[in-house]
Amino acid sequence: MAIRVLLVDDQPLLRTGFRMILEAEQDIAVVGEAGDGLQALDQVRALQPDVVLMDIRMPRMDGVEATRQITGPERNGPAKVLVLTTFDLDEYVVEALKAGASGFLLKDAPANELVQAIRVVAAGEAMLAPSITRRLLDKYATHLPSGEEPVPDTLHTLTDREVEVLKLVARGLSNAEIAADLFVSETTVKTHVGHVLTKLGLRDRVQAAVYAYESGLVRPGAQ
């Protein structure tokens, strides 16, 4: 079945461009468009998309609040949110990820990256590109903990290996890359990631990465 996508952006020209790119793919169907967050909520309820391609700054309701309502505990449907951003709006991206977005993508990303991001998010994975993530968090390092704050109690529930895995997830590594780094199987990595999410009460890898930075476990710019 085709991946059902809802386009949310207050610029009609951008929505048209995204529609042309996505409708050229046999496994993707654009089921609707919205020009602001409130329209997006209505469209999500009516159309039940699999993925919402969400702009951040829009009139009436911004993308952060719309994301929170779409992916929150009262959510009505399976929709996942992929946030669109430009670097001058990056301060909003972490808030969108914390609100429940499954990842983010630059508005000027190549067409093939947009298509791949839609497929990744629809499959239940997080779209967390390492290079973009590091640039984003480095830029806003002043808003994150200094590393001198007390370690959250929840972090102590993790084993040493789970802490290692969390650090690598925060760097944006895939399961395969983590497995190669730690010399274990991908199945083992998936198990560790699952334990990390469960113990910390997190929804996915994106929230795990945000947690790692906010807790001071990983510092912006660290390799």
From TrEMBL:
Annotated positions of the 4-aspartylphosphate modification: 55
Residue ranges of every copy of the Response regulatory domain listed in the record: 4-122
Keyword tags: DNA-binding, Phosphoprotein, Transcription, Transcription regulation
Chain ranges of the HTH luxR-type domain: 151-216
Keyword DNA-binding: yes
Iron among keywords: no
Name this polypeptide is given: Response regulator transcription factor
Gene3D superfamilies per the UniProt record, alphabetical: 3.40.50.2300
Domain of life: Bacteria
